Amino acid sequence: MSRRFERIHSRPGRRGFTLIELLVVIAIIAVLISLLLPAVQSAREAARRAQCTNNMKQLGLALHNYLSSTGAVPHVYPRWFFPGGSYTFTWGCWSPQSQLFPYLEQTSLYNAINFNLTNRYNGSAANMSFLGTRINSFLCPSSPLPKGTIACNNLIKSPGNNYFASVGPSIDWQSYANPTGLFGSDLDPRMGTGTTTSSWIQPTAPIGIADISDGTSNTIAFGEWRTGDFNCGVLSVPQDVVNAPTPWPSGLSTNGPWSGAALTTFMGWLNTCASTAPSTITHGGSNWEYNMSYLGISWDQGMFGYTLGNTMLAPNPNFPNCRTCTWMGDWDCPGMFGLSSFHPGGGNIAMADGSVRFLKSSTAMQIIWGLGTRAGGEVLSSDQY
After folding, report:
1. DSSP characters for 29-89?
2. What's the pLDDT tens digit per position in 315-343?
3. Is 363 a residue whose pLDDT tops 80?
4. With 70 as the cut, is the pLDDT of residue 10 above it?
5. In angstroms, rounded to a whole number, what is the distance separating the alpha carbons of residues 236 and 295?
């Protein structure tokens, strides 16, 4: 045998991983992933929350520009069903958010819409094609996109809206019934009782900077809420709207703040709503009449549940939203449509001065009510929320 062959033959063979070594490596990788995954998820949520904050900042700045141009905040004003016909002050009225389009880099959409007509229903065919437009600055990245449609023909998908205009601590969205908050639905002197009759009703006076006597830095303009899950068979608290119904207690003011016996009555109403909520997913027939799972469905409709909400509880409470009407219908009804988010520990609010704050879920109700009023005279400090 040659020396060269001996050297080659005697060279030690290559040795691979044993099964135990491979399992150890896999276990180490799994441990590292389990340690890193929460950090990655936390970083992603921080980025989503930052984008959400920026969206609300844009809304606040748009409000200020609108105020500078018009001298008042954008209310929900009555609209024609069709020219020369009847008015509506519930269905079909445009939202405050949509009236801010020129100040949100949505001038083209604003110019394309006929704001003299309703956004839906009779006489509104000219506007229907615009209602599915998805506006990124109205969507919080932490909240899922809506799954439903905004029209019975199932052709217009819900664009979504995670930022409601605040009516303050009140179950009313009409300005003439709600003197506490910043936004709402107004009356028009031409409207009368809903038609072009001679029974004229004077509109509520416009709300300008001077009317926010609590200070613009102490008054909520826009709040955040979760998009509904569009599943009537599952109770999702707090974003689902219970339509059982749960009537508002007789004699209790529809506008907060509440104290003493009124506070006890208010808490009783909250608990009644919560106790009724589980049964709303078991009703037969049209389930949407009982468990309304489409909060934040769109930006166009100037009404509770769509673009208007209230500040009755801190973000993400253990109570669902709740209608107060005794008839089974949609959201043209007083009730609680409040703050919620998918951010841990609370949710964002945009103040009337354009600043954005993170409101903790542990904030006391009385503080929430004080932040929601524009002229309540409350003395608040930032360390209270």
Report:
1. HHHHHHHHHHHHHHHHHHHHHHHHHHHHHHHHHHHHHHHHHHSS---B--EESSTTS-EES
2. 999 999 999 987 776 788 899 999 999 99
3. yes
4. no
5. 11
